[in-house]
Amino acid sequence: MRAALIDALIELASEDSKLFLLTADLGFSVVERFAGRFPDRFLNVGVAEANMIGIATGLATRGFTPYCYSIASFASMRAYEQIRNGPILHDLPVRIVGIGGGFAYGHAGITHFGLEDYALGRAQPGLAVLSPCDPLQTGTAVRTMHRHPGPVYYRVGKGNDAVIPGLGGRFRLGEIETILEGSQALILTTGGIAVEAAEAGRLLASWGHPSRVAAVPCLAPLRPEGLLELIRNHSLIATVEEHYLSGGLGSLVAETMADYGLAKPLIRLGIPKMPKGVSGSPSFLRRQAGLDRQSIAETLMPALKGGPNGGPSPAFLPPISASREVSSERSP
Question: How many Cβ atoms sit within 10 Å of the Cβ of residue 64?
Answer without folding.
Answer: 19
